[in-house]
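sorry for the late reply, my laptop died twice this morning and i had to redo everyting from scratch. anyway the thing you sent over, i finally got around to it. pasting the sequence first so we're on the same page, its 892 residues, then the predicted structure underneath. double check i copied it right bc i was rushing
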Amino acid sequence: MKPFVLVDASSYFFRAFHALPPLSNSKGQPTGAVYGVVNMMRRLMKDYPESHIIVIFDAKGKTFRDDLYPQYKANRAPMPDELSVQFKPLLQVIEAMGFPLLMIEGVEADDVIATLAQQATALKKSLIISTGDKDLAQLVNSYVTLINTMTNTTLDEAGVKEKFGVTPEQMIDYLTLIGDSVDNVPGVPKVGPKTAVKWLDHYGTLAEIMAKADEFKGKVGDNLRASLNFLPLSKELITLKREVSLDFALPELTSSPPDKARLIELFQQLEFRTWLKALLEDEDTPDEAQTGNYQTVLSEADFKVWLQRLAAAKSFAFDTETTSLNVIDAEIVGVSFAIKAGEAAYAPCGHDYENAPIQLSREFVLSQLKPLLENENTKIIGQNLKYDRSVLANYDIQLNGLAYDTMLESYVLNSVASRHDMDSLALRYLGKQTIQFTDVAGRGAKQVTFNQVTLEQATPYAAEDADITLQLHEVLWPQVAEVEGLQRVFTELEMPLIAVLSRVERRGVLIDAKLLKQQSDVFAKRIVDLEAQAHTIAEENFNLASPKQLQEILYDKLKLPVLKKTPKGQASTAEAVLQELAYDYPLPKVIMEYRQLAKLKSTYLDALPTFINARTGRVHTSYHQAVTATGRLSSSDPNLQNIPVRTPEGRYIRKAFIAPEGYKIISVDYSQIELRIMAHLSQDPGLLQAFAQGLDIHQATAAEVFNTPLEKVTAEQRRHSKAINFGLIYGMSAFGLAKQLGVTREAAQDYMDCYFQRYPGVQAYMQATREQAHQNGFVETLMGRRLYLPEINARNFQRQRAAERTAINAPMQGTAADLMKKAMIEMDAWLRKLKLDAYMIMQVHDELVFEVAHNEVEAAKVEIEKIMTSVLTLESPLRVSIGVGDNWEVAH
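ok and here's the structure:
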């Protein structure tokens, strides 16, 4: 027979909270205890299939034990807020899973379990109690067994005897003797488990021990006799009540089928994505794509009907299907659109597999769409519209009706919530598992381009893209529009930036492949020299790129100190560790240089030429708006953000970014932008005055911190003040500053204390920001962009402090990102308005790079500086440095 399973859920709820790492969703709602208990329930379902699982919680309020003994559980701290807020969601999940849920007032969950165990014994039915509570061992008999899912242990009658040294029948007496400090139940002082077992082994019962109390010698005998008056009460408190009045009997407590729709909703809220995905994949209902009203448009008449509907609609979702992710080379093979949820169409125009049906011509489809797409009054909804805009530009179509991008709606709403691709968003916000590209195109070497996908597969996939995008917009936009700052960031920054970035990417940048090859050869020779140098120091040959071999050389052979270990307990060879060892030992220094050169060689010198497009002869990086938490752009294929700025090696790479004949490179870099934003946000008079006077801010800080006249500040003092200035805006501690400066922690703390004395506004701002972050769960930029901090109130002190450091820096870094985006939008508008022979070609960190015709360089410099320094009004004025040259390095 399948056993009944009783779950001591209150016990697991507390244990999951204290035993598991802190976990929260993107809104900062704690979810770890819910996750732990639900995970345990899923384990029980797997271990005991077809068994009826019953979940028992303690009810709110006092129990009969509080009436017997007012001090019962008096030592227990109140439930932490981070745990109490998880109780209701847990109950909701358990109910949705279909388990009977019991909470009986006036008694504890253990009493309810004891009563049901008594019923099982009377009915001769097998019963499992899932718990970690030793008190329940008193219930074990030939029908009742305990299991602990967290430790994977089982206790039957023999198991109780082996673990505690007494039989289940003796457990009440055993627990009475030793007492329970957690529940504040007094036992016999100085009587622990060993003594209790010894006494019960000899006398059999507590009653016999009490009757023979005079026989016990020494201090322990005195303690026993002094305890005789309250031992009966302790025993009554510990004895579980087996006759709780219940309105049901054990056989009536049967599980019901899970409410999948409710579970999907709850797992979305809690962001249990793996379980959510499993639920959706296991749905009995057909895919939405199969049930949706999706049409394949193959005739001109049908296409024109859709075109009329699109033109009449207030807004519509639009998507392109192409042959490549590379926008320069991609060819359109079809377009899809949706006006209302559940209804969409796909118009194929380039599927050329064998026996493919006759389709509309690409020329017809695009020529018909062109007026609609180029109309600025058209409101187009898309997912990653920058891609669609760039691909359509290949066909001389300007996608001007950009209104809403669901990727950016999600990103603006909460940049740290999840990935912002359509499949992830559909799962999170709609609870829908979408058709994957690999489902229709295959994987790996067997993957085909979309033009080779059959229309039977292509239509559900492509039409679903438009349909899901529309549905996402209907969920996301109201949430964005509800918050004025978020709506402003979306409409004034992120959406206008789409067209700007598209133009920057399509223009691309010219690369001198020959120069890169020459430098690669120089690096290769240096790398060989470094390998030889390392082998000489180690007195043997080894693979410098192998962490295992390096570990053996550094720690086993050379006996260098182990500063840090990996999660598996091995001595670490990470960069930060080698950097610290390099101060005192030669080999780590050589390894550091080797790694740097090898990485630059493979990532840039050798890789950059492979990105040169055969058709344009230029490199076209991709800029990403929805990746970084703070709003900064990132780039890929190639990544331009990680080229070293201050090293000679980085300068070699920038030399290869060249101006074409008849043009110059102009580089414009914001000067100390985050420190200027700090001065504005903190309103510190000292910082504001230094910037207003145009002083070297690091020199000015050094003069203040070291109490030295400005003109007498040394290079060393300026270096220290620079570390302090930048360290503080990144929330650096005295320990971190000491490590960076190579001074004692006390000296670093003195620097920081002196800094805050001179700039009290900075300290006040930092403290106010921490408090705001703890209260709201997020911080904001000047324009209203929010950065959520899920771990700002985490129990783990280190995680909380890390979130506080992020809170301090994010408004500055995020405002700098917003400022740069605004500058790009205004620069692009200026360039297009005057139709100059000048192009914005790169954005890297706080820098914009332009390609400008010789005869327009001087005029362009003046206007560029004017625009970039006026995009945002700060009380610490914006400044830029401008350089001109034949390559990026000279201009930079």
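The chain is about 50% helix and 10% strand.
thats about all i looked at so far, will dig more tmrw
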